[in-house]
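I have a small job for you when you get a moment. Can you supply me with one protein entry, sequence and fold together? It will help me judge whether the discrete encoding reads sensibly. Write everything out right here, beneath this request:
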Amino acid sequence: MLLENIPLGRTVEIFVDREGYRYRLTSKAEYVDKKKICVTLIAARGKVFKFNPEDSISVVYRDSDNMWKWEECRAGMAKLDNSLIHFFEIKDKGKSFNRRNAYRVDLDTETMFGFYMDAKTGLKVSEMPYPDVDDPEFAAYKTPVPEFVQGFIKDVSETGINICLNIKLKTDDAVFFIIPSKFGQLKAKAQVVRKSDITTKGSKYSYSYGCVFLQTDKRLIKYIYDIQREALKRQKEMYYMEKELRKSHQTKTGEIPKPEKEEISEND
């Protein structure tokens, strides 16, 4: 896909790899051409996001079921129609986003989820909310204390996670938590985009939430790939075991062997 084909006003995702963590940012396209995309200034709680020269930056655009990715972009700030914007310059043509990277694997593990209450918005947030220093109530500001609840991680992908809790969350609420793994404890922050009640009889949890990652440990991707490879390995072993059993049965009964199915490949 050509960068200039991204419609103005559409949401784009920016992934930033920095010091062992991956951050996910979102903004809207304000201007596009063959080599550059300008987006609405990325800021949170009045602070503009600052890109560092050593950051590894990718821009992702999703169009229905298709995803496109531009890697190793150069970021900066400029003015567009007298308004500050962020821009991203690309090196190469966009490529179809590899769906293997979005492969979802089951974790089925429990962990603790934390959040802060943002008094101004009423939302649960994954980072400590700071008041505006110009707020008259700043002098009475007290450092917020996070709340913690036990929950369940059902499955995870590179970009999102499905969790189960016994507390009600709203869309745009966010939580922080740790994903247990063989690489150690992987810190993560995620924002709720979908929610549903769990009606399964005997379920330990009442609510299911689909979330997108705001920040993850970069080792999470390797962990997902390792789980995927192990699943493919087991699938391949079962395939050959069943194949040998069929051959053994055919030899004993004198049956004519059927044409073999296409073998399973780790690249599937």
Notes: DSSP finds one helix and 17 strands in the chain. The domain at 102-221 is CATH 2.40.10 (Thrombin, subunit H). Helices lie at 219-253.
